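SAMPLE LOG
Freezer: B-3
Tube label: C17
Construct: single chain, 315 aa
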Amino acid sequence: MPQVLRGPVCGAMLHQATQGRVMDFNDFLGGNAVLLALAAFLLLSIFLGVRIVPQSEKHVVERFGRLRAVLGPGINFIVPFLDRVAHKVSVLERQLPTASQDAITADNVLVKVETSVFYRITEPEKTVYRIRDVDGAIATTVAGIVRSEIGKLELDQVQSNRADLIVKVREQVATMVEDWGIEVTRAEILDVSLDDATRAAMLQQLNAERARRAQVTEAEGKKRAVELNADAELYAAEQEAKARRVLADAEAYATGVIAEAIKESGIEAAQYQVALKQVEALTAVGQGSGKQMIIVPAQALDAFGDAFKMLKGRV
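STRUCTURE (predicted):
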Protein backbone atom coordinates (compact mmCIF):
# COMPACT_ATOMS: atom_id res chain seq x y z
CA MET A 1 0.00 0.00 0.00
CA PRO A 2 1.27 3.57 -0.77
CA GLN A 3 2.55 5.58 2.08
CA VAL A 4 0.87 8.88 2.90
CA LEU A 5 3.27 11.66 3.80
CA ARG A 6 2.15 14.01 6.44
CA GLY A 7 3.44 16.87 8.40
CA PRO A 8 6.74 18.68 7.79
CA VAL A 9 7.92 16.19 5.18
CA CYS A 10 4.98 16.95 2.79
CA GLY A 11 5.42 20.71 3.09
CA ALA A 12 9.08 20.53 2.28
CA MET A 13 8.48 18.52 -0.85
CA LEU A 14 5.82 20.96 -2.13
CA HIS A 15 8.13 23.91 -1.55
CA GLN A 16 10.91 22.28 -3.55
CA ALA A 17 8.54 21.54 -6.48
CA THR A 18 7.26 25.17 -6.62
CA GLN A 19 10.75 26.58 -6.62
CA GLY A 20 11.68 24.29 -9.46
CA ARG A 21 8.82 25.56 -11.64
CA VAL A 22 9.62 29.21 -10.97
CA MET A 23 13.22 28.61 -11.89
CA ASP A 24 12.16 26.95 -15.20
CA PHE A 25 9.89 29.91 -16.12
CA ASN A 26 12.59 32.42 -15.29
CA ASP A 27 15.06 30.50 -17.38
CA PHE A 28 12.56 30.51 -20.30
CA LEU A 29 11.99 34.24 -20.02
CA GLY A 30 15.65 34.94 -19.74
CA GLY A 31 16.42 33.12 -22.95
CA ASN A 32 13.43 34.39 -25.09
CA ALA A 33 12.66 37.86 -23.67
CA VAL A 34 14.12 39.62 -26.68
CA LEU A 35 12.14 37.52 -29.09
CA LEU A 36 8.94 38.06 -27.20
CA ALA A 37 9.49 41.82 -27.07
CA LEU A 38 10.24 41.85 -30.80
CA ALA A 39 7.09 39.88 -31.57
CA ALA A 40 4.97 42.19 -29.43
CA PHE A 41 6.47 45.24 -31.14
CA LEU A 42 5.82 43.73 -34.56
CA LEU A 43 2.19 42.99 -33.75
CA LEU A 44 1.68 46.46 -32.37
CA SER A 45 3.30 48.01 -35.46
CA ILE A 46 1.01 46.04 -37.76
CA PHE A 47 -1.99 47.06 -35.69
CA LEU A 48 -1.01 50.73 -35.83
CA GLY A 49 0.32 50.77 -39.41
CA VAL A 50 -2.53 49.07 -41.28
CA ARG A 51 -5.72 51.07 -41.72
CA ILE A 52 -8.87 49.79 -43.40
CA VAL A 53 -11.07 52.67 -44.59
CA PRO A 54 -14.78 52.08 -45.40
CA GLN A 55 -16.17 53.06 -48.78
CA SER A 56 -18.21 55.90 -47.28
CA GLU A 57 -15.30 57.58 -45.49
CA LYS A 58 -11.97 59.26 -45.96
CA HIS A 59 -9.34 59.48 -43.21
CA VAL A 60 -7.03 62.44 -42.69
CA VAL A 61 -3.56 61.41 -41.45
CA GLU A 62 -1.31 63.75 -39.50
CA ARG A 63 2.37 63.43 -38.61
CA PHE A 64 3.41 65.45 -35.60
CA GLY A 65 0.27 67.58 -35.99
CA ARG A 66 0.80 68.32 -39.68
CA LEU A 67 -1.22 67.00 -42.63
CA ARG A 68 0.46 63.92 -44.02
CA ALA A 69 -2.05 62.21 -46.33
CA VAL A 70 -5.70 61.42 -47.01
CA LEU A 71 -6.58 57.74 -46.99
CA GLY A 72 -9.19 56.50 -49.45
CA PRO A 73 -11.41 53.40 -49.21
CA GLY A 74 -9.65 50.05 -48.81
CA ILE A 75 -6.41 48.94 -47.12
CA ASN A 76 -3.89 51.72 -46.41
CA PHE A 77 -0.52 51.78 -44.68
CA ILE A 78 0.91 54.49 -42.45
CA VAL A 79 4.09 54.78 -40.43
CA PRO A 80 3.40 53.45 -36.91
CA PHE A 81 4.08 55.71 -33.92
CA LEU A 82 4.70 58.66 -36.28
CA ASP A 83 1.44 58.94 -38.22
CA ARG A 84 -2.02 58.93 -36.76
CA VAL A 85 -5.56 59.17 -38.14
CA ALA A 86 -6.67 62.58 -36.88
CA HIS A 87 -10.06 62.85 -38.64
CA LYS A 88 -12.55 60.37 -40.06
CA VAL A 89 -14.75 62.23 -42.54
CA SER A 90 -17.90 60.82 -44.12
CA VAL A 91 -18.28 61.46 -47.86
CA LEU A 92 -21.98 60.59 -47.93
CA GLU A 93 -24.44 63.22 -49.14
CA ARG A 94 -25.86 65.28 -46.30
CA GLN A 95 -28.95 67.44 -45.95
CA LEU A 96 -29.06 70.62 -43.97
CA PRO A 97 -32.13 71.11 -41.78
CA THR A 98 -34.86 73.10 -43.52
CA ALA A 99 -34.11 76.76 -42.89
CA SER A 100 -36.51 79.70 -42.96
CA GLN A 101 -35.44 83.30 -43.47
CA ASP A 102 -37.13 86.60 -44.24
CA ALA A 103 -36.43 88.50 -47.45
CA ILE A 104 -37.70 91.70 -49.08
CA THR A 105 -38.52 91.79 -52.79
CA ALA A 106 -37.80 94.65 -55.17
CA ASP A 107 -41.34 95.98 -54.70
CA ASN A 108 -40.90 96.03 -50.88
CA VAL A 109 -42.92 92.93 -50.03
CA LEU A 110 -41.80 90.90 -47.01
CA VAL A 111 -41.70 87.16 -47.76
CA LYS A 112 -40.61 84.14 -45.77
CA VAL A 113 -38.50 81.66 -47.73
CA GLU A 114 -37.87 78.04 -46.80
CA THR A 115 -34.73 76.45 -48.24
CA SER A 116 -33.11 73.04 -48.23
CA VAL A 117 -29.52 72.22 -49.24
CA PHE A 118 -27.85 68.89 -50.01
CA TYR A 119 -24.07 68.63 -50.08
CA ARG A 120 -21.17 66.21 -49.69
CA ILE A 121 -17.51 66.56 -48.77
CA THR A 122 -15.14 65.84 -51.65
CA GLU A 123 -11.84 67.12 -50.23
CA PRO A 124 -11.66 66.39 -46.50
CA GLU A 125 -8.28 68.10 -46.06
CA LYS A 126 -9.87 71.46 -46.99
CA THR A 127 -12.97 70.91 -44.92
CA VAL A 128 -11.04 69.93 -41.80
CA TYR A 129 -8.48 72.74 -41.85
CA ARG A 130 -10.49 75.63 -43.33
CA ILE A 131 -13.91 75.55 -41.69
CA ARG A 132 -15.10 74.46 -38.27
CA ASP A 133 -18.91 74.39 -38.45
CA VAL A 134 -19.73 73.19 -41.98
CA ASP A 135 -23.51 73.12 -41.59
CA GLY A 136 -23.66 76.56 -40.00
CA ALA A 137 -21.38 78.09 -42.63
CA ILE A 138 -23.42 76.68 -45.53
CA ALA A 139 -26.72 77.73 -43.93
CA THR A 140 -25.45 81.31 -43.46
CA THR A 141 -24.17 81.43 -47.04
CA VAL A 142 -27.47 80.18 -48.45
CA ALA A 143 -29.48 82.70 -46.41
CA GLY A 144 -27.39 85.62 -47.65
CA ILE A 145 -27.56 84.55 -51.30
CA VAL A 146 -31.33 83.95 -51.15
CA ARG A 147 -31.95 87.40 -49.67
CA SER A 148 -29.72 89.00 -52.31
CA GLU A 149 -31.39 87.26 -55.26
CA ILE A 150 -34.95 87.84 -54.04
CA GLY A 151 -34.15 91.52 -53.49
CA LYS A 152 -33.52 91.82 -57.24
CA LEU A 153 -36.97 90.50 -58.21
CA GLU A 154 -40.53 91.64 -57.71
CA LEU A 155 -43.02 89.38 -55.96
CA ASP A 156 -44.67 88.21 -59.18
CA GLN A 157 -41.27 87.32 -60.63
CA VAL A 158 -40.32 85.39 -57.50
CA GLN A 159 -43.46 83.27 -57.84
CA SER A 160 -43.22 82.73 -61.60
CA ASN A 161 -39.42 82.38 -62.00
CA ARG A 162 -38.72 80.09 -59.06
CA ALA A 163 -36.83 77.58 -61.23
CA ASP A 164 -34.39 80.26 -62.46
CA LEU A 165 -34.01 81.55 -58.91
CA ILE A 166 -33.10 78.06 -57.65
CA VAL A 167 -30.47 77.67 -60.38
CA LYS A 168 -28.86 81.00 -59.50
CA VAL A 169 -28.82 80.19 -55.77
CA ARG A 170 -27.28 76.76 -56.34
CA GLU A 171 -24.57 78.13 -58.64
CA GLN A 172 -23.58 80.90 -56.25
CA VAL A 173 -23.58 78.61 -53.20
CA ALA A 174 -21.42 76.08 -55.07
CA THR A 175 -18.93 78.81 -55.95
CA MET A 176 -18.78 80.07 -52.34
CA VAL A 177 -18.19 76.66 -50.70
CA GLU A 178 -15.78 75.31 -53.31
CA ASP A 179 -12.77 76.46 -51.25
CA TRP A 180 -14.04 74.34 -48.35
CA GLY A 181 -13.84 71.11 -50.35
CA ILE A 182 -17.62 70.81 -50.48
CA GLU A 183 -19.86 70.02 -53.46
CA VAL A 184 -23.44 71.33 -53.37
CA THR A 185 -25.58 68.71 -55.11
CA ARG A 186 -28.98 70.33 -54.62
CA ALA A 187 -30.36 73.64 -53.37
CA GLU A 188 -34.13 73.96 -53.27
CA ILE A 189 -36.56 76.77 -52.41
CA LEU A 190 -39.38 74.83 -50.81
CA ASP A 191 -41.86 77.62 -50.17
CA VAL A 192 -42.33 81.38 -50.45
CA SER A 193 -45.03 82.51 -48.01
CA LEU A 194 -46.58 85.90 -47.24
CA ASP A 195 -48.09 87.44 -44.15
CA ASP A 196 -51.89 87.73 -43.80
CA ALA A 197 -52.08 91.43 -44.73
CA THR A 198 -50.05 90.98 -47.89
CA ARG A 199 -52.01 87.88 -48.83
CA ALA A 200 -55.32 89.76 -48.43
CA ALA A 201 -54.04 92.67 -50.53
CA MET A 202 -52.89 90.29 -53.25
CA LEU A 203 -56.26 88.52 -53.23
CA GLN A 204 -58.02 91.86 -53.65
CA GLN A 205 -55.69 92.77 -56.51
CA LEU A 206 -56.30 89.40 -58.12
CA ASN A 207 -60.07 89.84 -57.95
CA ALA A 208 -59.80 93.32 -59.44
CA GLU A 209 -57.62 91.99 -62.25
CA ARG A 210 -60.15 89.24 -62.97
CA ALA A 211 -63.00 91.78 -63.08
CA ARG A 212 -61.00 94.00 -65.43
CA ARG A 213 -60.27 91.08 -67.75
CA ALA A 214 -63.96 90.13 -67.75
CA GLN A 215 -64.94 93.69 -68.70
CA VAL A 216 -62.31 93.81 -71.42
CA THR A 217 -63.49 90.47 -72.79
CA GLU A 218 -67.12 91.64 -72.79
CA ALA A 219 -66.21 94.91 -74.53
CA GLU A 220 -64.17 93.07 -77.14
CA GLY A 221 -67.12 90.74 -77.71
CA LYS A 222 -69.51 93.64 -78.24
CA LYS A 223 -67.02 95.33 -80.55
CA ARG A 224 -66.64 92.17 -82.55
CA ALA A 225 -70.43 91.76 -82.77
CA VAL A 226 -70.81 95.31 -84.10
CA GLU A 227 -68.04 94.71 -86.64
CA LEU A 228 -69.64 91.47 -87.81
CA ASN A 229 -73.07 93.15 -88.04
CA ALA A 230 -71.62 96.00 -90.09
CA ASP A 231 -69.86 93.49 -92.34
CA ALA A 232 -73.15 91.63 -92.78
CA GLU A 233 -75.04 94.80 -93.69
CA LEU A 234 -72.29 95.81 -96.10
CA TYR A 235 -72.38 92.39 -97.70
CA ALA A 236 -76.18 92.54 -98.01
CA ALA A 237 -75.97 96.00 -99.60
CA GLU A 238 -73.31 94.79 -102.03
CA GLN A 239 -75.43 91.79 -102.98
CA GLU A 240 -78.53 93.97 -103.41
CA ALA A 241 -76.56 96.36 -105.59
CA LYS A 242 -75.31 93.45 -107.67
CA ALA A 243 -78.89 92.16 -108.03
CA ARG A 244 -80.12 95.58 -109.14
CA ARG A 245 -77.27 95.80 -111.59
CA VAL A 246 -78.19 92.43 -113.04
CA LEU A 247 -81.87 93.44 -113.27
CA ALA A 248 -80.91 96.72 -114.90
CA ASP A 249 -78.74 94.89 -117.39
CA ALA A 250 -81.57 92.47 -118.10
CA GLU A 251 -84.07 95.36 -118.51
CA ALA A 252 -81.68 97.17 -120.79
CA TYR A 253 -81.19 94.02 -122.84
CA ALA A 254 -84.97 93.50 -123.06
CA THR A 255 -85.49 97.12 -124.06
CA GLY A 256 -82.84 96.76 -126.71
CA VAL A 257 -84.48 93.62 -128.06
CA ILE A 258 -87.88 95.37 -128.14
CA ALA A 259 -86.39 98.38 -129.87
CA GLU A 260 -84.76 96.12 -132.43
CA ALA A 261 -88.08 94.30 -132.95
CA ILE A 262 -89.94 97.61 -133.40
CA LYS A 263 -87.32 98.70 -135.87
CA GLU A 264 -87.74 95.54 -137.85
CA SER A 265 -91.50 94.82 -137.48
CA GLY A 266 -93.01 98.24 -136.95
CA ILE A 267 -95.50 99.39 -134.37
CA GLU A 268 -97.20 96.03 -134.12
CA ALA A 269 -94.33 94.62 -132.03
CA ALA A 270 -94.72 97.44 -129.52
CA GLN A 271 -98.48 96.98 -129.35
CA TYR A 272 -97.93 93.28 -128.85
CA GLN A 273 -95.60 93.90 -125.89
CA VAL A 274 -98.05 96.37 -124.33
CA ALA A 275 -100.92 93.95 -124.70
CA LEU A 276 -98.83 91.18 -123.20
CA LYS A 277 -97.99 93.29 -120.16
CA GLN A 278 -101.66 94.15 -119.66
CA VAL A 279 -102.63 90.49 -119.70
CA GLU A 280 -99.90 89.67 -117.18
CA ALA A 281 -101.05 92.50 -114.90
CA LEU A 282 -104.66 91.34 -114.96
CA THR A 283 -103.56 87.77 -114.31
CA ALA A 284 -101.65 88.92 -111.24
CA VAL A 285 -104.66 90.85 -109.98
CA GLY A 286 -106.85 87.82 -110.45
CA GLN A 287 -104.61 85.68 -108.26
CA GLY A 288 -105.68 87.61 -105.16
CA SER A 289 -107.96 86.34 -102.39
CA GLY A 290 -111.07 87.80 -104.12
CA LYS A 291 -111.86 90.37 -101.47
CA GLN A 292 -110.39 93.36 -103.26
CA MET A 293 -112.28 95.54 -105.71
CA ILE A 294 -110.81 95.81 -109.21
CA ILE A 295 -111.37 98.93 -111.27
CA VAL A 296 -110.84 98.25 -114.97
CA PRO A 297 -110.47 101.17 -117.42
CA ALA A 298 -113.12 101.52 -120.14
CA GLN A 299 -110.52 100.91 -122.84
CA ALA A 300 -109.41 97.66 -121.17
CA LEU A 301 -111.87 95.50 -123.12
CA ASP A 302 -110.75 96.98 -126.39
CA ALA A 303 -107.13 96.49 -125.34
CA PHE A 304 -107.81 92.85 -124.44
CA GLY A 305 -109.50 92.33 -127.75
CA ASP A 306 -106.62 93.81 -129.64
CA ALA A 307 -104.15 91.80 -127.50
CA PHE A 308 -105.98 88.54 -128.13
CA LYS A 309 -106.12 89.31 -131.84
CA MET A 310 -102.38 90.00 -131.89
CA LEU A 311 -101.66 86.87 -129.84
CA LYS A 312 -103.83 84.90 -132.21
CA GLY A 313 -101.96 86.30 -135.08
CA ARG A 314 -98.63 85.36 -133.42
CA VAL A 315 -99.75 81.81 -132.83
